[in-house]
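Supplementary Note 2. Why include the ligand at all?

Several targets in our set were suspected to adopt different conformations when bound, so apo predictions alone were not considered sufficient. For every target with a known small-molecule partner we therefore ran a joint prediction. The input for flavin mononucleotide is given below.
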Amino acid sequence: MDVLDAIMGRRSIRRYKSNPVDDAKIKTVLEAAHWAPSWGNKQCWRFIVVRDQETRSKIADTLMKIRVENELVENAAARGIRQAPVLIVVCAEKGQAGFRSDGTPVTDKGDVWYMFDVALAVENLALAAHSVGLGTVIVGGFDTTRVEEILGVPDGYRVVTMTPLGVPDHAGQVSPRKDLAEVTYHEKFGR
Ligand SMILES: Cc1cc2nc3c(=O)[nH]c(=O)nc-3n(C[C@H](O)[C@H](O)[C@H](O)COP(=O)(O)O)c2cc1C
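The joint prediction is reproduced in token form.
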């Protein structure tokens, strides 16, 4: 699939078929993630492939409820985590991206660069998944500390995000974007 087709055709998928996902496809999407650019090529990301239903269910329970019309409802991605046969949890090693080898920060943004590097990897993963017929939804609203406990993530690492990976059970809805002109300026901010 052409890269622009993959970018324009990918949608967040929150309902999955129970079909298994073969290991070759999982490897393909992880390779795509791992070939993302990263600060100083430090590759601070770590991927945890979770297949176990009970673990996925426990992780789904950590997703934050969302307020819709004054009612708290389950995060729409929770069902996807329970349904899809695979969950990819993405962690970052702290103090790598954005830091010199002596541990001093290079920029005034401190440790935010691990979020940046992980985001690049996860977007690669989502596009690669779409190109091989699999769905994803990037998940941010969960109890990080609880997920780290469930997965035994050691000090020095942080769980950043996760995505179910499976065969989509729907086409995914198109979430419209703002006009490009609204978010693009020329020469100076705001113009
Ligand atoms: C950092 C980040 C966190 C997100 N967290 C959630 C989430 O917790 N639950 C969810 O259902 N979708 C989540 N999403 C998916 C967005 O809602 C979705 O990408 C957006 O509405 C645009 O739709 P599209 O991905 O289909 O283009 C997240 C996306 C990003 C990039």
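The chain has one domain: 3-167. The longest helix spans residues 113-131. Comparable summaries for the other entries are listed in the accompanying table.
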